[in-house]
Design brief:
This is Cytochrome P450. By secondary structure, the chain is α+β, with helices and mostly antiparallel strands. It has a single domain, classed as Cytochrome P450 (Cytochrome p450), CATH 1.10.630. It is built from 16 helices and 10 strands.
Length: about 400
């Protein structure tokens, strides 16, 4: 696919498959690694699909995740883009020392030590949810019964917010991650509700702190966070902390069950759980939109000059199938090691909660293998439906039986 300058692809690229990639990925990597695309907003951007290009740009500290200038591409359709117009986008530092301080303060809640402390409770919650699912009988929707409620419980524990409000979080999150599912008025109203909810929560944490992240940040004498930053942090963690992992639990399980020999291999050798999780992350074709970088100075990528004022989207999912980096990149190798995939990004803006996501995915798989060894998809793989209209990718449902 040699892309002429005038040829512009619509992004996200269409894909008729659920668990397999669009053919365009390999074609672009081979012949047009810096493609011209338009977002759902209609704005122009460039698309990277090669591993080395994607990793280099994501790790380049010169470029921020999004641009606020007039020449920065808007993502969502309509005149309101929740990601760039939200309190979160306006308040949280995107680069420099402020960003480093913010990350350092949050990092202590996502360390290996914290994950080891949380792991038994995550396993206990996963077992409870599986027991409730099996008590209702098969078939069941693994995403609704396990994939969604587990990470919501975890992030609510970390933030000290009530799990009972999880349906509100889900709606607020979806509007923030909107591509073309919600109107501008719906998005504005939703974000106002989200901000008001967290403002009240932050005020309560200042007055009556608990053993949670927001309480610590709200009452830290060394690095006092203003209310707006605390609200934005809560928004970001609630959105990122449940939406992506909830979807990944369903996608990972579907990938492993689509070829029964994979599930049998894990039953025979549970030590494969950790590399299997990494391989599922690498092979995820419905990872979502990708990571945005706003290029405000001229750079060269794959022999092309990118002009200042260009918005570039990095497709980590396409990069993760680059044959130049991964042997037999299209194959699911449950024992693949090393596995330097880019599912969590790279550099200073790599996913803050990746240790938490890995822990939740590993624990979920361990619990399912132990409690439901006969688990299987209740529908043909071809009947699985993809989530549409959101920045994150996933499956609408994951019907299973046992």
């Amino acid at each position: 696919m040699v892309q002429e300058h005038a040829e512009v692809l619509k992004y996200p690229l269409p894909n008729e498959h659920t668990l397999e990639p669009p053919a365009a990925w390999a074609e672009l990597r081979g012949k047009c690694p810096v493609a011209h695309v338009t977002f759902p907003s209609g704005d122009a951007a460039r698309l990277l699909t090669r591993y080395d290009d994607v990793k280099a740009l994501l790790a380049d500290p010169r470029f921020e995740r999004s641009g606020t200038g007039e020449d920065a591409a808007r993502i969502s359709a309509g005149e309101y883009d929740a990601l760039t117009n939200s309190e979160m986008a306006a308040v949280l530092p995107g680069s420099g020392e402020g960003h480093l301080v913010w990350r350092r303060q949050l990092n202590k809640w996502f360390t290996a030590k914290q994950m080891a402390r949380l792991r038994p409770r995550i396993a206990e919650t996963a077992e409870r949810l599986v027991n409730e699912m099996t008590a209702k009988g098969a078939p069941a929707d693994l995403k609704a019964d396990l994939g969604f409620p587990l990470p919501v419980w975890v992030i609510c524990e970390i933030l000290g917010v009530p799990e009972s409000d999880r349906d509100k979080f889900s709606y607020w999150s979806d509007t923030m991650l909107n591509l073309d599912r919600y109107t501008a008025d719906e998005m504005r109203a939703s974000q106002a509700e989200f901000t008001a909810y967290l403002a009240a929560h932050v005020a309560a944490k200042r007055e009556h702190p608990g053993d949670d992240l927001l309480s610590e940040l709200a009452n830290d004498p060394e690095f006092p966070f203003p209310d707006a930053a605390l609200i934005a942090t809560g928004q970001g963690l609630l959105v990122a902390g449940h939406e992506t992992t909830a979807n990944m639990i369903g996608k990972m399980t579907a990938m492993l069950l689509a070829d029964r020999s994979r599930w049998e291999a894990l039953l025979a050798d549970p030590t494969l759980v950790r590399p299997a999780v990494e391989e599922a992350l690498r092979l995820d074709v419905n990872a979502g939109f990708g990571m945005i970088r706003y290029v405000d100075q001229e750079i060269a990528i794959a022999g092309e000059t990118i002009a200042p004022g260009t918005t570039v989207v990095c497709s980590m999912a396409a990069a993760n199938r680059d044959e130049a980096v991964f042997d037999n990149a299209a194959e699911m190798d449950l024992a693949r090691t090393p596995n330097p995939h880019l599912a969590f990004g790279a550099g200073l803006h790599s996913c803050l909660g990746q240790a938490l996501a890995r822990t939740e995915l590993q624990v979920t798989l361990e619990v399912l293998l132990r409690k439901l060894p006969t688990l299987e998809l209740a529908v043909p793989e071809s009947d699985l439906e993809k989530v549409e209209g959101l920045l994150v990718g996933g499956l609408v449902a994951v019907p299973v039986r046992w």
